[in-house]
Amino acid sequence: MRPGQHRQADRAAKPAARLKVGFVLARSFTLSAFALFVDTLRLASDEQDRSGRVLADWQVIGSTRHLITASCGVQVAPTSDFVDPSRFDYIVVVGGLLTVENPVDQETIAFLNQADAKKVPLIGVCTGTFILAAAGLMKRHESCVSWLHYKEFRERFPDLKVRSDRLFNLDRQRGSCAGGSSSADMAALLVRKYISRDAERNALEVLQIERARAAADVQPRRPLYDDYDDARVKAAMITMEQFVDGSMSIEKLASTVGLSRRQLERIFIDKTGMSPAKAYSRVRMERAKSILVQSKAPLIEIALDVGFENASQFTRTFKRTFGQTPSQHRAAASRAH
Predict the structure, then answer these.
(1) Mean pLDDT across the chain
(2) H and E: helices and strands count for the chain
(3) Region for 22 from its dihedrals, namely left if φ exceeds 0, alpha if ψ lies in -120 to 50, beta otherwise
(4) Whose CA is closest to 175, among 290, 94, 232?
(5) How many CB atoms lie within 10 A of CB 268?
(6) For residue 131, pLDDT beyond 70
């Protein structure tokens, strides 16, 4: 058999990709969200780092082949015109700057509606969920967006369910993702579902990602002080986060913002509905919760990090704050993986 015939035989013997994804890129899309998603597929599709489309395949699809400019200025060319959406297991819409008036054209909206009619699952990445919502495609589905965009989503789509407490969400025929590094987490879930855990592990190892986070994992989000508009409250809570070990006394905390303890107490009760001590405890517990799901550190180590003398005292405070013990919270996050 000639060398060319060998190659043809190899191609004929190659199994069909188990996971096929079509990407729709919005004008001024977020490059990192797209790159992390597609690179997770690329690395899961072949062994080591050979980039072969063996177990997964993907296309950037669009109404034209014109270059699409990301928010950082890098341009990407579509690799396919709009085809029958049922060729794909998922259509992923990658959003970007919300200041862009028409992030996609009407042909794209029509294509997304066609995909919906054919029961092809749609995923909004970063602000791609805004595009799906504006097209009427998030009704009866819960959206997950970044905390940074939560308020604007609520304002634009007051009748839709939305959350910003988790990294991503898969709700029947819809997926939504906060963007950033969580794009790799969502892609890893699809890889695990359609290909294998080994493929997922290979992709994450090459990307230098220790583990794929689950949908239920909490977003690294804005600090609690962003919920309040009083400058003195914000300044005090920033200081709390800087001294998350609990070493800052309330009296000293008050002096850092030019107030007496009594004045600080009154302002906190008025502006936040809780005392400075309770707010400080909440800040410390939120930090502990983040450490629990992002590391394998023992409870005593986490307890000491957030200012407790022993694990039992830390456990009681954590349960009082979140309704479950630190071990229960970590186990729940582990099961979600």
Answers:
(1) 89
(2) 14, 11
(3) beta
(4) 94
(5) 25
(6) yes
